[in-house]
């Protein structure tokens, strides 16, 4: 019986940026594999390529060399439409700054990605309400982001990332904009949700205490991924 393909695999990915001084190599053959149900912390200083790695993993950018595999499927040569379809259904992304749509309510922010993926409105609304309730936001569904606290806004952003039942969750400093107490609560809720759904998750954080609560910690050194702790 063959082993299941990793939920996410980066194979020798390279990324270079052009500057006035010439090409700047950011990733140099980075390798990373995430299994379903595994939560991995990415801890690296600013400017080392952390966000670039996440953007490649999330199919927001294409590597200059190497390949990104999602559930065993190579995504590098796919059309933009095909990559968008994978992002929409298989990958959830949480940013440090929630990027909620300010003119829409909490419920609508979680509803919209489901409608874009073709979910019927009734089922999408039910899913949105259930997710928001699971993050303690029952009664806040009809508030726009401006009427929510920072922690509440980030909970909505996490619910939105989980709305289409992705296989992979990518998070770029998801609690970095919150005070310590709120960050701990939101992060614990994020971990519970990810573990409960059996997702593969790659979570960038500067907080060593949060990183220690994950299954594995990796870092970036000279454009390559290195394991800090199994």
UniProtKB/TrEMBL annotation:
UniProt KW keywords: ATP-binding, Cell inner membrane, Cell membrane, Membrane, Nucleotide-binding, Transport
ABC transporter domain location: 8-230
Entry keyword annotation includes ATP-binding: yes
GO biological-process terms attached to the record: lipoprotein localization to outer membrane; protein localization to outer membrane
GO MF, any single term: ATP binding
Bilayer-spanning residue ranges: none
A GO CC term attached to the entry: membrane protein complex
Family according to the record: Belongs to the ABC transporter superfamily. Macrolide exporter (TC 3.A.1.122) family.
Protein name from the UniProt record: ABC transporter
Species: Roseicella frigidaeris
């Amino acid at each position: 019986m063959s082993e299941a393909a990793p939920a996410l695999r980066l194979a020798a990915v390279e990324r270079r940026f052009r500057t006035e001084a010439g090409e700047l190599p950011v990733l140099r053959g980075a390798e990373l594999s995430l299994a379903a149900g595994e939560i991995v912390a990415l801890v690296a200083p600013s400017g080392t390529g952390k966000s670039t790695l996440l953007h490649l993993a999330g199919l927001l950018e294409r590597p200059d060399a190497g390949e990104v595999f999602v559930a065993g499927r190579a995504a590098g040569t796919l059309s933009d439409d095909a990559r968008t379809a994978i992002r929409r259904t298989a990958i959830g992304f949480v940013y440090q700054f929630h990027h909620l749509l300010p003119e829409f309510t909490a419920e609508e922010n979680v509803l919209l990605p489901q409608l874009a993926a073709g979910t019927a409105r009734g089922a999408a609304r039910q899913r949105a309400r259930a997710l928001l309730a699971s993050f303690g936001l029952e009664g806040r569904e009809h508030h726009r982001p401006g009427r929510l606290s920072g922690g509440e806004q980030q909970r909505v952003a996490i619910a939105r990332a989980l709305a289409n039942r992705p296989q992979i969750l990518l998070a770029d400093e998801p609690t970095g904009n919150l005070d310590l107490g709120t960050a701990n609560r939101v992060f614990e809720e994020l971990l519970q949700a990810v573990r409960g759904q059996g997702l593969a998750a790659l979570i960038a954080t500067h907080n060593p205490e949060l990183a220690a609560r994950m299954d594995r910690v990796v870092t970036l050194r000279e454009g390559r991924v290195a394991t800090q702790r199994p």
